[in-house]
Amino acid sequence: MKIAAVVGLAAMLAYLGYCVMLYLAQDGMVFPGRTADPARVAEIKRYYPRLEPFTVTAGDGTALTGYYLPRLADGKPLPAVLYFAGNLEDQTGFFLWSPNELRFATIAGVDYRGYGGSAGKPSEASVKADALVIYDALAQKLGPDGRIVVMGRSLGSGVAAYVAANRPVAGVILVTPYDSLLAVGQEGHPYAPVRLLMKHPFDTTADAPKISAPALFLVAGDDTLIKPVRSEHLAAAWPGPKTYEVIPHATHNNIIDNPQYWKAIREFLKGCLAQ
Prior knowledge:
This is Alpha/beta hydrolase. The strands form two sheets. This protein has an eight-stranded mixed sheet, sandwiched between helices. Strands 3-4 form a two-stranded antiparallel ribbon. It is built from nine helices and ten strands. The chain has one domain (1-274): Alpha/Beta hydrolase fold, catalytic domain (Rossmann fold), CATH 3.40.50. 40% of the residues are buried. By secondary structure, the chain is of the alpha/beta class. It has helices spanning 2-30, 38-47, 91-101, 124-142, 155-166, 181-188, 194-197, 228-237, 259-273, and strands at 52-57, 63-69, 72-73, 76-77, 80-84, 106-110, 148-153, 171-175, 215-220, 242-247.
């Protein structure tokens, strides 16, 4: 009996330690942060001479930085794609390739707190509040007739959906999206009470019913980080017009290397911006 009690106590303590570890480590798992590589910054400036810094002051005074590449027609900015990055990205990764792939659009993106050159420490609440400030700053740049498509990848898909639920957008592009990070976390840690531990649940299904703009879902068929079932659940809760496209054999990280990826984005943008 004593041995059984000791073993049981050890197992309970180990489980409690596991839960404490998850709680304490989650900020770093959700927001690991990433500083901009100066060489990559120089590279995108060389590729796109018209690239401008995009600096925004958050509601609490935190300075956020990113990039803005205007494209003009008749002296007016073309509709913009506003990008929200994944949790392992800073905006230079998007600006390295996207402007060349999307020559008919203005491109904009600002790094989360603690990413790129942005100050501060991120949280779900601050990232979402900042995203609305960023949208408003971009809308001011574009002028009264400006149109914005929000695009988010992985973590950023939930941020893009939040903006679309709270601001007028011409379209929404969701790359490897999830129904909630809570659900993703529960899949990864099936024996932990993730609902009780999660500080940044990012429940995208709560925003979906508020969005009427057309949406493009881009899902990696072999994604093991955000499994396709998470995207399927979100799509099922999405009442607005949507295009759901699975890229076979693509993974969470290499989906952007697939030719089908940019082709689908260009076709979607041309369709929703023509309306």
